[in-house]
């Protein structure tokens, strides 16, 4: 059963009530349709599942919430875009001083959405962690640095307001998947985005890059492949601009910043991304920072995030250990 109630704030609230501990939630955000924003949907044009094999790719799992989850949807954190500058917050009803994970979706900086969330709200809430997922402006309409600046503004909103939802602003962890890994590592290493909103990278306790590899954009651009046009559309063709947009460029700042967890799948086709993650870890450690690797055994790039927290998932245990260790 799902009960929707007025939150008294911008957005909507949903309270999960289920005897077996699982609530399946389907959220249709009409405002997205009104302004023409189209979330990524498997098998539809513009989604990651379009093309050969799209018809056989399994659909994303339904959104799952714990029995005590309260979901606050479509909270505006900035004013650049009425839809894309919104976030969803899922927290235990009895949260008090709880750690907070702020999640940034992927989609080559040009597509994707804060929904769906699959098992993550249930997984994090049952472990005493507030889960937030945020949208951000997309390229090519909004090129870099719009994405990192938006995420920094989302972090600022969380820092200023999470106490109202039972969270602790001193226990924030920034997490991303795919292109979201680029965004969160950039925000965690380059002091400029957070500096614009009066914060600094050390205000984050941890950064989690969950299956990504876009840390040296100039190197990936030279290598060609499917990501080249997305890098061009978001960062331009100039090598200097690509270097300026690369998290690796700022690894030397890691000493005074958050701790990093860099997770990669063990797929053969993910070899380049694994090597990019290893290079990031090496540079962060050389600079006096803290970084560790996790292998997401048996997971695909997409499955790494969709199956996180599933009943048979084994990849989440190390993630929980990391979150609790950096926020204790």
Give short descriptive properties of this protein.
single chain, 328 residues, alpha/beta, Rossmann fold, ten-stranded mixed beta sheet, two-stranded antiparallel ribbon, 12 strands, disordered N terminus
Characterise the protein shown here.
By secondary structure, the chain is an alpha/beta fold. It has one domain: Rossmann fold, CATH 3.40.50. It contains 11 helices and 12 strands. A 10-stranded mixed β-sheet has the order 1-2-5-6-8-7-9-10-11-12, with helices on both faces. A two-stranded antiparallel sheet has the order 3-4. Helix 3 crosses helix 4.
Structural class: alpha/beta
Radius of gyration in whole Å, from Cα?
18 Å
DSSP strand count: 12
CATH architecture: 3-Layer(aba) Sandwich
Helix content: 25-40%
N→C terminal distance = 34 Å
Shape: globular
Fold topology:
Elements: E1 2-5, E2 12-16, E3 23-25, H1 30-34, E4 63-65, E5 69-76, E6 86-92, E7 98-104, H2 120-126, E8 130-134, H3 146-161, E9 167-177, H4 179-189, H5 191-195, E10 206-210, H6 217-222, H7 228-235, H8 239-244, E11 259-265, H9 271-286, E12 291-296, H10 301-306, H11 316-327
Parallel strand pairs: 7-8, 7-9, 9-10, 10-11, 11-12
Antiparallel strand pairs: 1-2, 2-5, 3-4, 5-6, 6-8
Helix pairs in contact: 3-4
Concise description?
The protein has helices at about 30-35, 120-125, 145-160, 180-190, 190-195, 215-220, 230-235, 240-245, 270-285, 300-305, 315-325; strands spanning about 1-5, 10-15, 25, 65, 70-75, 85-90, 100-105, 130-135, 165-175, 205-210, 260-265, 290-295.
